[in-house]
Amino acid sequence: MAAQRKARHILAVAGGKGGVGKSVFSITLATTLVGMGYRVVLIDLDLGGANLHTYMGILGQTLSLSHFFQKKVKTLDEVVISTRVPELKLISGAHYLPSMSSPGSSLKIKLLRHIKALDADFIVIDLGAGMDLNTMDFFISSDIGFIVTVAEPAAIMNSYRFIKGTLFRKLHGVFKNHAQLAPILVSMAEDSAYSDSLMLNTFIEKVMQIDPSAYPLVNEISAEFRPCLVLNRIGTVESNNLVGSLISHCTTKYNVQLKYLGNLPHVKEISSFLLDIPAFLRSSSGSGFFKSLKSIVRKFLLDIHDTNVVAEKLQLLKVYDDDTIKRIGEIIKDLPEGKLTQTEKKLWQLRLYFKPTEVVAFLLCKGIKDNIFFEQLYTIE
Ligand SMILES: Nc1ncnc2c1ncn2[C@@H]1O[C@H](COP(=O)(O)OP(=O)(O)OP(=O)(O)O)[C@@H](O)[C@H]1O
Ligand SMILES: [Mg+2]
Q1: pLDDT in tens, 296-308
Q2: Ion ligand 2: residues, Cβ under 5 Å
Q3: Structural domains of the chain sorted by starting position, each given as residue range(s) with its CATH number in brackets
């Protein structure tokens, strides 16, 4: 059964490398958003290596994701717990069960559906290190993905591999039923483990030989994939060659624009707050970290705000549940060829999952508003 989407923005934090500060960033990001008046749920999806509860000083028996996995509760919101930060809620990954680290596809889909149904302004998902398929899928399913890294060769390389692996995973998700392109994507994703010279262009060349009509879609998928980059444990705002080449390689080789949001300082005193990370933000030693974090938060909020402004001008709905998205997708599919070509239809159907408000605005501009259904989605003539 499709639950209604209530979560307004789903943010995922990943990075490829272990120990770079993903969990510290997730907690401090969530705490800062709460401080700005937003309703936030933090979720520990580092299945197998969960530690948010420890970092938040929640020890002992509590409800956690394991209750959801074991079907001891019906809905995910039953395992949401309170933290020491008023208004910051947590879904803890404590009480690890071996089966949790590799949920099957139907359990994963169910979990995602329940995450979307959580009633919050922001859901912040802390993901584990590495690039197993589940981590990549949770990253792809978020509205905004953060890559946290330190400016060291191994961490930068892991971030790069995570980004290109996730792009191939995303492409595979779209073309999984394409008889010729799907196997090519699988073998390319595997070959990329051995060769860092594998580029999106290699795939595009094959697309142009096999099915050129799929090209706009490939282009759209890579261009729409815009992870935000955060550098952790940096002393000054030095221009770092490694980071510069990560950003330029993503653009030139994969058509992926990384959005660099800024850096967070290395603060050794953080080690005194490992059982209460939110308290670090309020402490005098955390003030520089907090200032940098606020600048990062402001930058990504601006992006979200832009979309809201457009939606407000047209007075369009901003949050769409799964059923509505599906209905709009069907309307696009049934449009006559004269209105949209097959390729355009595929493109707008895909975009529907990233930017439903923009798709609705586009359809209205195309004069596709005779369907009574759209009357629920906009309020001005
Ligand atoms: N800006 C910072 N300054 C100093 N120490 C930091 C900073 N950020 C994180 N750390 C320290 O680095 C360690 C690892 O941080 P964290 O657990 O957030 O990493 P992670 O990427 O989530 O690791 P994992 O991959 O194991 O989940 C912690 O001990 C934390 O205190
Ligand atoms: Mg972590």
Answers
A1: 998 888 777 666 6
A2: 22-23
A3: 9-312 (3.40.50.300), 322-376 (no CATH)
Residue-wise pLDDT tens digits, 343-363:
778 888 888 877 787 788 777
Is 129 touching ligand 1 by the criterion CB < 6 Å? yes
Q: Which of 126, 270, 292 is the pocket-test mutation for ligand 1 (most atoms within 8 Å of CB)?
A: 270
Nearest residue by C-alpha to atom 3 in ligand 1: 266
Query: Cβ(5)–Cβ(121) under 8 Å?
Result: no
Atom of ligand 1 nearest to the CA of 27: 18
Q: Is the CB of 19 under 6 A from ligand 1?
A: yes
Give the mean pLDDT of 172-182: 89
